[in-house]
Amino acid sequence: MKKVFGLDIGTRSIVGTVGYRENGKFYVLAQRILEHETRAMLEGQIHDIEKVAESIRKVKALLEKDLGEKLSDVCIAAAGRVLRTVTTNVEVRFEGEKDVTRDDVYELSMMGVQKAYEDFYSGEESEMRFYCVGYTVMRYYINGYQMNNPENHKARTLGADLIATFLPDDVVDGLYKAVELAGLKVANLTLEPIAAIQVAIPEKFRLLNLALVDVGAGTSDICITKEGTITAYGMIPVAGDSLTDCIAQNCLVDFDTAEKIKRAIGEQQEITYKDILGLPNTKTAEELLEMVDPVVKEMTRLAADTIRELNGEKAVSAVFVVGGGGILPGYTESLAAQLGLPKERVAIRGREVMQNIVFQAKDARQDSMMVTPIGICYSFYEQNNNFIFVEFNGVRVKLYDNGKLTVGDAAIQSQFPNENLFPKRGDPLTYTVNERTAMTRGSLGEPSEITVNGIHADLGTQLKNGDRVDVISSTKGEEAVQELGKLPEMRGDLKVNVNGQEIRLPKLAEVNGTMQSVYYRVQNGDEILVRDWYTVQEIASYMGLTFSGSVSVNDTPAKQDTRVYDSFSVTWKEGRNPSPRSGDKPKRETVRRERKKPAETSGPAPLAAAAVPPAVDTAQRQEAQAALSAPVVAAAPSAPTAISVVANGRPVTLQGKPAYVYVDIFDYIHFDLTRPAGKGIVTKLNGRPAEYLEEIHSGDVLEIYWE
Q1: What percentage of the chain exceeds 90 in pLDDT?
Q2: Where do the H-state alpha helices sit in 479-534?
């Protein structure tokens, strides 16, 4: 048997109730009522937290004495003049058909509350912070069809219409602080009209279009039912205290005396009192009712207007009134008149709606004032609307407790920047390859470092009340780096048949119209053209030959600028250099098709496929030259020669070949291609821009440097 402790923290009094539910009935074990000694609350909102906390401590102590046991957890209800409601729809789609469980229904409700939060703040322009203090599922849907209780039904989709209510942060915080100062922990928070309707309007009556008006001291709380569900909530900041204020002003008495006079109206024909001057006075109940009649009419007018507004601008079929403020004679008749209803259809609801309440407490009240306090206890069984407090990076954060709160929820509530939770990528590169837009993403930075109570955690770590969460922001990664030779379009070779032998040619690439090395670092906005062809002259230069004689491509006479594509055949008929001398050895280790950077080989750094200099791949070059070892037509070989040039201000002698092209110079100078020092390589020949495959001669002046 789990006992529930409920507190109705009202504007004029605090009502504490302890009981338990069993077999459809609620048993009241203890009940205590204590009025505030001062006006510590106004219009349903706490103004003096310490004084309210002291009153709660007194009620708690009295109940503990009655029960003979300590109380630690308490259920409370919120009221306030600034109430917002949001109606939303939520749906979850399952993977195939499944039996709906209680957890499925609960998670759907929590999704609805979260969506209501999002909808609420998307249209809320106020700087005031609001919290959801209660929700009601209006309708459930299975596969799009309405269902009263979806649990255990088979479903592909599960949906719900849900209404959520919101109150300002200071209202909720004040309640929690007062309860905490009284040595209690909040087990459940609900809204006062949600609590009242648990008792006043049973589910079997909710098919009717009814209104419940809970007239307290500071606020009048309203809710509407129809079609089997609660459809709307509202609140007006006018209630019993307005009547008391009217009596105090007209009778010239203090507030407490005016409150006693008000309560005596329905019980005595004549009320005697002393005013603030100490003079005795006597008023009849009729005189006092006439005195407060304008206030009663204004209260009921506001209530009637709110009922119509919540009910689609029309009156309801009947109204149930609960709470002490509605007991005043004439209130129900005035509200009926304002709504245009027969007076019999606006009625006080008290003991007659408590058929399932068993009062075991001695001298327990069983009137309309007890509907909301008992309903607060009932709400504990219906829904768990609670808040917990955690410390997030040194700041106290309040979280709506759905039973599955995580570090991620705390981060969102504390408005911790989302981008600081996850690793951030460095700046990307955007460029075009063969007229197609391409992008290389930057590297990921380090993820955020999260601890909960000093222990390593992550965003999914669940939280409990009092946890300390510390988050060190994630970092940004390095900006994108893209080497030309590592583009997907640069993969593979062109295979060309030369004099009956297949040779492999690395792909060529132009950047912004200029041939570049595979080690060129792509820049934002670069326009890259990856070529799928060579000219005859470029093939000859790649093979270390001088173009001469008769050449045909695919058995068709060709010129130096004739393009040769993959799988084409090239034939030198005459005037060719058949092959390197048999005793020659490569000057560098073989660089295979993966084209390792020069730093990974034992030889000097070459240029590679993007610019495809003839000396890029010695092995491929030798294969290409060897292709001529079985000539179609014999011809006299050209003898190797030596030439002297000036490269970067120093004399250099090139030897061992019958002819030389510009990139051969890289075999003789040190130029580190593995560590780019600029946007690209500048090549000049005799003061003008040079091509990599351009032939050079003795006396030429070469300049090579990073741009």
Answers
A1: 31
A2: none
